[in-house]
Amino acid sequence: xxxxxxxxYQPLPSAVAAMDNPAMSNSSSSxxxxxxxxxxxxxxxxxxxxxxxxxxxxxxxxxxxxLRGTSIAPEPRSRPGISxxxxxxxSVLCFVxxxxxxxxxxxxxxxxxxxxxxxxxxxxxxxxxxxxxxxYMVFAPLFGYMGDxxxxxxxxxxxxxxxxxxxLFGSFMQTFAxxxxxxxxxxxxxxxxxxxxxxxxxxxxxxxxxxxxxxxxYFAIPVGSGLGYIVGSTTAELAHDWRWAxxxxxxxxxxxxxxxxxxxDPKRGESEGVExxxxxxxxxxxxxLLKNRSFVLSTxxxxxxAFVTGALAWWGPxxxxxxxxxxxxxxxxxxxxxxxxxxxxTMTAGLVGVPLGSVLSTAIKKHNKAxxxxxxxxxxxxxxxxxxxxxxxxxxxxxxSYVLMFFGQVAINLNWAIVADILLYVVVPMRRSTAEAxxxxxxxxxxxxxxxxxxxxxxxxIKNKMLAQSRTVDSDxxxxxxxxxxxxxxxxxxxxxxxxxEDVYTFESLQYSLFSTTFVEVLGGVFFLITAxxxxxxxxxxxxxxxxxxxxxxxxxxxxxxxxxxTYSKTLFDAEYLANYTDIALRERA
Length: 590
Description:
Elements: H1 3-8, H2 16-20, H3 34-42, H4 58-68, H5 84-109, H6 111-118, H7 122-147, H8 152-170, H9 176-204, H10 207-218, H11 220-239, H12 248-261, H13 282-290, H14 293-325, H15 335-365, H16 371-393, H17 398-413, H18 415-426, H19 432-448, H20 451-484, H21 488-514, H22 516-531, H23 535-554, H24 567-571, H25 575-589
């Protein structure tokens, strides 16, 4: 390489250590050798560093000292603190995510009133959420594709404006067909924001700061959902009309559109210091993602999380309301009161569970680099018996049920920020929006797109079976009684008993159908346990792939062995993988 080319070479983020810790750009170089890194690789522990950590461990610091001495690549740019623009961006994104989930679960807080207005049963009520999620997941890949190529700011502006408008118009629909149509349109708008927003945070921060900001961003899922129940039920009660509950978030949506239009869209890969991002075809990117075992397995685990949370979030208030009415003295209990309490539990569990996941990740990573998927697995396997116990206890023990429900939700909330961080550090920057879109498509297609409808349909089928058997028994009883006495009072008593039995059957049928979520939680835990077998190696490859692409642009004749800093190719990759990567990179450019 000529002297001119060497002088034109601008330092790009280096090595695994420097990419994860921008503060190291101010540190002086320490001595080290390539053998240090080679020893790490040969020992079966590739040098990877999770961006989930809130504080750096001593062992990580020692390994980073080794890596800095290998000159794998130049040091990254310094980020001594968080700028006002970064704080503004995170604040806006968190606010929009909050009202996003408020809107998503407002209907669940007033579901009983919606069912009465449109005269629908549980299966049709579950279909309301299913059509929303179906449109959401279908359009997620489209917005993911555009999010990797076009202005993310304006894509989000259009999306938020769309779901705010359709939510408002839907509240005026007088027929179930019109209402469910606008509910589907809401999903299109929300797909744009949910797909793109996490990638902006990823491009603004690295290492521990990225983890903190992602945890803050994903607070909005449980907190926003809880606010949806609370605001929806409270507004409906004050206005004496459930439709007004749907008109709160569109007003907040107008504010969100204005704030998003003021947002600065960071360069893709900016936090890692990637100076130039070359786009590949969508098919090439998708094929590469499907070969990423950690991404595929963690997406499968997250799909189980989506299935469970989708079913419980939609049917939770309605089920608790039915269960509490089984207790003496609660015959006239309103669902608005139940939704308010359920919302508080959901919010509090989110405030505890999301940061607890990050704290546990930091602590466990000192001893195990595969901590993230292990924590996700543990959360699901712990949540399954807790939530099952809450379902069983609700008709008899209110306080015990609420306590079990709280800890069950805390356990499942350990997943949110960690799963998002796993995706961001096992996928290269130029493919993160596409990866987000694929994960959204898969998790919703097999998760919460069908779980509300599936639970509702199963409960309706079970209830109809119970009622059919009950009518047969009651008919035989009435015939026997009519032979003994012709007393009208006894007939009225049997009629009232039949009505009470129908309420019991409605509760029990929904309980049985919700038990399906227990199996799915355990299955999700298994997927995350398998992810732990591959997470360290896949993160190391994703990190080094960025460096490989940088060096490939600078290597004469596309020969990585002639790159200015080819040390990583001798330590982080085997020969077969390096050859495959070079071939893929060259084909992408062609």
